[in-house]
Write a structure and sequence with these properties.
Blueprint: E1 4-5, E2 11-13, E3 16-20, H1 28-36, H2 42-64, E4 76-81, E5 86-91, H3 98-104, H4 112-119, E6 145-153, E7 162-166, E8 171-176, E9 183-190, H5 200-210, E10 218-220, E11 223-224, H6 241-251, E12 260-266, E13 272-278, E14 292-296, E15 299-302, E16 317-321, H7 338-361, H8 363-383, H9 385-391, E17 396-398, E18 404-406, H10 407-414, E19 425-430, H11 437-445, E20 450-452, H12 458-468, E21 472-476, H13 482-485, H14 498-512, E22 517-522, E23 531-534, H15 537-549, E24 562-567, H16 571-578, H17 582-599, H18 605-618
């Protein structure tokens, strides 16, 4: 039989065409197998997406009047033959002719979707209905298959079915085929090193991950595994609260009910749809627990969306779908460009607007939710100046009795009583109501208000507010003695002479004998503690931030230094000073000092045991 070779290097013999795939390197297949995709399971996503693509193209051709036949039930079927060691992806979509196989399969990276869109660009606005546009997705099959077959028949009248076979080399065989119906079968003969995929449960898991919301029904093992019309593809006007909650349960079966949600829907200057849910966060950072899922035309891409979603919103849950997010050739990673930045900014603005609307519409309801959402609002203020411009109107401060106030409301509330001698407003706060209870009680007795700042990022939030708000300073309620927390330039009159104060300081320094303690004698109200232990606000704040970051730093390595303030006006101090027995005087110094440690939860171990024993002995 005569063999004829054409100018493309193809040889034809008895209706069978042999040739070489048009590529720029002989080593393209090893490159695809080893480097194109980081995870070999992606082959199923690519092939199923292409099959869905074929059905979507046929649907559009029908709407253009270019296909007059019956569409029927458009569907993609994935089947497994464990004995034959094959996986088959079938569709009843547009199909291909032998010439189209040569064009779209034999010329790697020549995208059929791109060619289709170019041809019909004046007839369709729904470019998002066409999924594939890379041209390499089909070749992901060779990551797991030692041979790949295509059996296909075009939708065109009189089209002859064709069969294409390739063993992973650059050589292929193209022959006629026996197929009555339009559509395509991709048959993978699984390689020995990929037989892990010849497992029904494994295939189902992969399909449920990547094909969960594809727009054409996908059948596996006799069941449809996807929801073809997820709620982000619908109009918000057509959805109820229960629809949103039900979809959340579908995404996160083990999650608590969300607080509220945002439905994203924009078509200019980019296309973006999706649902973002606000979970119950409380006082913890849960970036990794449940992630936002990124889709491109209903094809799952990744749940690593840090470039698309602002960092502080990574705590949200839900889905984002955009055909305008640039992906690399394997659809595995995002590529940063102006579209990503615009989408990032849009999401930030939508979240801020939603929170502002909720605050204005239902202040009480917003306050009830604030313990759950306050963490990411504060994080947003720290990380995004545009978010701060809106959030400063609805971020709330909470005091120790559970009252909420906006920044402006709180300034007005404490203006009269908590302004120091420099006309600076002093925001008193506590990080631990139990541990600092004595200090809180003293402040409240003076008519001061104390904020509760026990959030994991509040140390950073406090610093940010001091920078953003004019003439505002934060002081932890135990950072100094009460009269110095809000220094109004007034001094209490001491009942002790200067000589007595000097003697008292010497006694405490001698008994305590600790160079890290700075002893001072101050005139304070008689109802205050006899001894108070404080750490300067600046020093404590720097050490707290160093501890939160988990990194060693200059501030984290600074030696700990405490102020020991002796209340010269307290009756116990007067008794201690008049004591003539040195042992009794020493015991009294240790006792009042240990009381101060106990008030700060700093008395532990042997020192605590000694304090208890000493107290019992004096009863």
């Amino acid at each position: 039989m005569e063999t004829v070779q054409n100018e493309k290097g193809e040889s034809t013999q008895g209706g069978s065409t042999r040739g070489q795939i048009s590529i720029h390197t002989e080593n393209i297949f090893p490159i695809i197998k080893k480097f194109l995709y980081s995870d070999h399971e992606i082959f199923l996503r690519e092939l199923v997406s292409n099959a869905v693509d074929a059905t979507q193209k046929l649907r559009q051709l029908s709407s253009f009047g270019e296909f007059g036949g019956e569409l029927g039930d458009l569907k993609v079927t994935v089947s497994l033959n464990e004995e034959a060691k094959t996986i088959t992806v079938s569709d009843n979509g547009i199909g291909m002719t032998a010439d189209e196989i040569k064009k779209y399969i034999n010329q790697i990276a020549f995208s059929g979707a791109s060619d289709f869109l170019e041809k019909y660009k004046d007839k369709t606005d729904d470019k998002g209905a066409i999924i594939g546009h890379f041209g390499l997705g089909f070749y992901s099959a060779f990551m797991v298959a030692e041979e790949v077959e295509i059996v296909t028949k075009s939708y065109r009248d009189g089209a002859e079915p064709a069969r294409w076979v390739c063993d992973g080399s650059t050589e292929y065989e193209l022959t006629s085929a026996d197929r009555a119906e339009r559509g395509t079968d991709i048959i993978l003969h699984i390689a020995p090193d990929s037989e892990e995929f010849l497992d029904k449960a494994r295939l189902r898991t992969i399909l449920e991950k990547y094909a969960r919301f594809l727009p054409t029904p996908v059948e596996f093992d006799g069941q449809i595994i996807n929801n073809t019309t997820p709620i982000w593809t619908k109009s918000p006007a057509d959805l109820t609260d229960e629809d949103y909650k039900s979809f959340y349960r579908e995404l996160y079966p083990m999650g608590e009910e969300p607080l509220f949600w945002i439905h994203l829907n924009v078509d200019y200057p980019f296309n973006l749809t999706g649902i973002l849910y606000f979970p119950r966060i409380k006082n913890e950072l849960r970036f990794q627990r449940e992630k936002i899922q990124l889709y491109s035309r209903q094809v799952f891409i990744t749940d690593e969306v840090k470039d698309v979603v602002p960092d502080f919103l990574m705590m949200l849950h839900g889905v984002i779908d955009s055909p305008d997010i640039p992906l690399n050739v394997s659809r595995s990673f995002l590529q940063a460009d102006s579209s990503v930045k615009k989408i990032n900014g849009y999401i930030t603005r939508k979240v801020a607007d939603k929170l502002n609307d909720l605050f204005n519409a239902d202040r009480k309801g917003f306050e009830e939710k604030f313990d759950d959402i306050g963490l990411f609002i504060k994080y947003g203020i720290l990380s995004d100046e545009k978010f701060w411009e809106k959030a400063k109107n609805f971020v709330l401060l909470k005091n120790t009795v559970g009252e909420y106030a906006t920044l402006d409301e709180y300034r007005e509330k404490i203006q009269a009583n908590q302004t120091d001698k420099n006309e600076t407003l002093v925001f008193l706060y506590t990080t631990d109501r139990k541990q600092q209870d004595a200090y809180i009680a003293s402040a409240v007795r003076r008519g001061y208000d104390v904020l509760l700042m026990d959030n994991v990022i509040d140390s950073h939030f406090i610093n940010a507010l001091e920078q953003k708000l004019e003439k505002v300073h934060f002081q932890r309620v135990d950072a100094d003695t009460l009269d110095k927390l809000i220094d109004k330039g007034l001094n209490n009159e001491s009942v002790l002479s200067e000589d007595d104060r000097t003697k008292l300081k010497e006694v405490f320094e001698q008994v305590l004998d600790n160079k890290s303690l700075n002893v001072s004698i101050e005139a304070q109200p008689v109802d205050e503690l006899p001894v108070t232990i404080t750490m300067p606000e600046f020093m404590r704040r720097m050490k707290d931030m160093a501890a939160l970051s988990g990194e060693q730093s200059f501030y984290g390595n600074l030696p700990v230094s405490y102020n020991v303030v002796v209340n010269a006006n307290h009756p116990l101090i007067g008794k201690l000073l008049s004591e003539t027995d040195s042992e009794t005087q020493t015991a009294l110094v240790k006792q009042v000092y240990d009381l101060a440690l106990l008030a700060q939860n700093m008395l532990t171990g042997a020192e605590l045991t000694a304090f208890v024993r000493r107290t019992v002995e004096r009863l």
